[in-house]
Write a structure and sequence with these properties.
Beta-Lactamase, Heat Shock Protein 90, 4 domains, five-stranded antiparallel sheet, five-stranded mixed sheet, 20 strands, EC 2.7.13.3, transferase, PAS-like_dom_sf, histidine kinase, phosphoprotein
Length: about 600
């Protein structure tokens, strides 16, 4: 007890135990003796009594001093005491030594401060706490950097604001807390939304936080922006898919090209034989049969051309083109192909970049695409043919290099395709049409032509949503197209070099029917021997691909070096651009593409028909 002036009047055993004074030593002294010197000077003892009088109670924590001068952390309560008349008779003072609690609190506070500094120092991760209901209760610098909200803006808001609208509609925020609450942890990746509305791909971890009694007190949430990692993974996946597609198409192209090349040789035998027979004179029935057979050979030749187009071995007459102008010039044909209830809308680029194209084959590719689109809409619909200039990044479309391109797209509103069907759309002989209504070579021919032109083709299709086929064509430089001409007059003796015996015989008869003297050789070595023995040879007519180590191009170059007066014609089922890519400049030689007809030979040899 204290009197009204603060003088100690009574003293219990507890006071003696932790303050160190015996009752005889302390009664009669002012209670300010328990305060540190600094607080005595500051008037804290008087303030305590005055507060107790004014407010009816004084309660405080602070440092106090024992008899031996050591300090302890005390919890102090002072209450005024009054008699029955209300007169102040003194104060009741209760002091408790809570030093241990103070030390523990200070240690906890220091730990929390260090942890807060650590969390606030992390900028690559968003680290924040949620209340049990999901409201944000704290916020680090990383969260502000990644999500865009300042601390004052976000505290108290529900964390669902970070989710996309579709995820909120699907109940993902509530599901996240439910899983964390029941399993202790939630971890997932998905799209999240910044303050400005932009999205980022996030790796999210949510841990449930519980107190010592096991009661849920909130959630700790850690988020990392892994958008770059996701983009890199997607780019790698696209590159792998493009590489696989390119390898698959290359393998198919090599197989198809080889088959078509051999088939060309067989057709050439038949065609040349038929030409020889027709020159010998037959009755009308025989002539009609020969004409029928020639038409069949022509159809077979068209089939091989389609295969070679897919295999990128089709001879192209390349020229600098304005794609919009080509489409405008061909638009009437495309509209007739669309027919009936199908509408065709052309959306041209006003200033399309020039491209290098075989315009006739490009028109055929467009017609093919329009017919396919028409067939996909038996109940009617719309075809949109668009042209636009685009800039592609590295790996954006297949294996195409980054740079400027012209994109020509044919979009329909038809039935669309399943992903597994669209993935096979370019494969030769693959078709979804009824038996007898498609060869399965249409899209493969388009693919081969565009690939041979230096571009690529993409298909986007969904069932019930229609199909869009996009052709990407590289912008032309100053390169001009190929021109295969053979000036000069024909001569009388031809050295024919061909490793296929049937084709050698048929072509020899065809040349003889034109009045030529024909010398034959089945390989390059035999031809060199004939050239060394005969000095009246005017034309060397040689196949390019031969098995004995001296191919037709090596033979042609040796002949040009040793016998410059001899005219040379190269024959191959492979296109001239492909041969040039492998063997270099061939402009000194004429070229004829297999299978060739009588008229083709006349043109190549420079004779008038």
């Amino acid at each position: 007890m204290l009197d009204p002036d603060g003088i100690i009047k009574t003293w219990n055993a507890g006071a003696e135990r932790f303050k160190g004074y015996a009752a005889s030593e302390i009664i009669g002294q002012h209670f300010s003796v328990f305060y540190p010197q600094s607080e005595q000077i500051a008037g804290r003892p008087a303030l305590a009594l005055r507060t107790a009088l004014d407010e009816g109670k004084f309660e405080d924590e602070g440092w106090r001093v024992r008899k031996d001068g050591s300090q302890f952390w005390a919890s102090v309560v002072i209450n005024p005491l009054r008699d029955d008349s209300g007169k102040l008779v003194g104060f009741a003072k209760i002091t408790r030594d809570i030093t241990e609690r103070k030390v523990a609190q200070d240690a906890l506070r220091e730990s929390e401060q260090r942890f807060s500094l650590l969390v606030q120092g992390v900028t690559d991760y968003a680290i924040f706490m949620l209340s049990p209901a999901g409201e944000v209760t704290n916020w680090n610098v990383g969260a502000e950097r990644i999500k865009g909200y300042s601390r004052d803006e976000i505290l108290g808001k529900h964390f669902s604001c970070f989710y996309t609208e579709e995820d909120r509609a699907g109940g993902l925020p509530a599901q996240t807390l439910a899983i964390a609450r029941t399993e202790g942890r939630f971890e997932r990746e998905g799209w999240r939304v910044r303050k400005d509305g932009t999205r980022f791909w996030a790796h999210v971890v949510v841990d449930a936080i519980r107190d010592e009694a096991g009661e849920l007190v909130g959630y700790a949430k850690v988020i990392r922006d892994v958008t770059e990692r996701k983009q890199a993974a997607e780019a790698l996946e696209r590159a792998n898919a493009a590489l696989f597609q390119a390898q698959k198409m290359e393998s198919l192209g090599q197989l198809t090209g080889g088959v078509a090349h051999d088939f060309n040789n067989l057709l050439a035998v038949m065609s040349n034989g038929l030409d020889v027979l027709s020159l010998r004179g037959q009755d009308n029935a025989d002539l009609r049969m020969l004409e029928t057979m020639q038409r069949a050979v022509a159809r077979g030749a068209r089939l091989t051309q389609q295969l070679l187009s897919f295999a990128r071995q089709q001879p192209l007459k390349v020229e600098r083109c304005n794609v919009t102008a080509v489409i405008r010039g061909f638009e009437a044909v495309l509209r007739r192909a669309a027919e009936g209830a199908i509408g065709l809308e052309v959306r041209p680029e006003s200033r399309p970049r020039p491209v290098l194209l075989d315009a006739a084959r490009f028109e055929a590719a467009l017609l093919n695409l329009v017919v396919n689109a028409r067939d996909a809409m038996p109940g009617g619909g719309t075809i949109v043919l668009g042209v636009e200039n685009v800039e592609l990044g590295e790996g954006t479309v297949g294996m195409l290099a980054a740079g400027p391109y012209a994109r020509v797209s044919v979009a329909d509103t038809g039935s669309g395709m399943l992903p597994e069907v669209a993935a096979r759309a370019f494969d030769p002989f693959f078709t979804t049409k009824e038996v007898g209504k498609g060869t399965g070579l249409g899209l493969s021919q388009v693919y081969g032509f565009i690939a041979q032109s230096g571009g690529d083709v993409l298909i986007h299709s969904e069932p019930g949503e229609g199909t869009t086929v996009s052709l990407y064509l590289p912008v032309a430089g100053d390169t001009s197209g190929d021109a295969d001409t053979l000036p000069g007059p024909a001569l009388d003796t031809v050295l024919l070099v061909e490793d296929e015996p049937d084709l050698l015989d048929a072509t020899a008869q065809l040349l003889q029917s034109l009045g030529y003297e024909v010398l034959t050789a089945s390989n390059g070595s035999e031809a060199m021997d004939v050239l060394s023995r005969r000095d009246n040879i005017g034309v060397l007519f040689t196949d390019v691909v031969m098995p004995d180590g001296i191919d037709g191009i090596q033979l042609a170059r040796s002949t040009r070096s040793l016998h410059p007066a001899i005219r040379i014609v190269l024959a191959s089922g492979y296109p001239l651009p492909a041969l040039k890519a492998q063997h270099g400049n061939l402009s000194d030689f004429a070229f004829i593409h297999k299978p060739y007809r009588l008229a083709d030979l006349v043109r190549a040899l420079g004779m008038a028909t």
